[in-house]
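Example 9 (inverse folding). The structure is encoded as follows.
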């Protein structure tokens, strides 16, 4: 789907506050409300917008212990629905280089993380190695 300048304006506003009424988006962009509505629908249908969501305060919801794990595996597939559907797993990226995957996880505390990593390594014999990095501060985190 080709995006023009008007689509870009609408997307930038929605990224800041996806709950903003169409009339407010219209005022901020100078685009008629009916056109804003039609364009948002086209962005959804064109899969440019996958979903509308919220940004939570990690500390307030008890997910302030953020961990990144680099994973190196064998030739078999080792990421299954158990990992994909785990509440602690927030993002998984296939990457190039020495490791195969980058996993972003969030926990309440180090004990919760410790339990997760022990089970992760025990359940996944195909994993050759992991490199774990713990976030010390969050400078920027987009949804």
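The amino acid assigned to each position is listed next.
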């Amino acid at each position: 789907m080709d995006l023009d300048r008007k689509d870009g304006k609408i997307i930038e506003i929605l990224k800041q506050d996806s709950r903003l009424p169409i009339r407010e988006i219209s005022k901020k962009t100078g685009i008629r409300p009916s056109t804003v509505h039609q364009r948002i629908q086209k962005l959804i249908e064109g899969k440019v917008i996958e979903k509308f969501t919220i940004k939570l305060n990690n500390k307030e919801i008890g997910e302030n212990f953020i961990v990144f794990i680099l994973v190196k595996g064998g030739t078999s597939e080792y990421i299954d629905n158990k990992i994909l559907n785990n509440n602690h797993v927030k993002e998984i990226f296939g990457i190039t280089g020495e490791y195969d995957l980058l996993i972003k996880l969030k926990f309440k505390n180090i004990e919760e993380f410790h339990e997760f990593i022990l089970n992760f390594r025990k359940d996944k014999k195909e994993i050759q190695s992991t490199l774990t990095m713990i976030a010390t501060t969050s400078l920027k985190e987009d949804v």
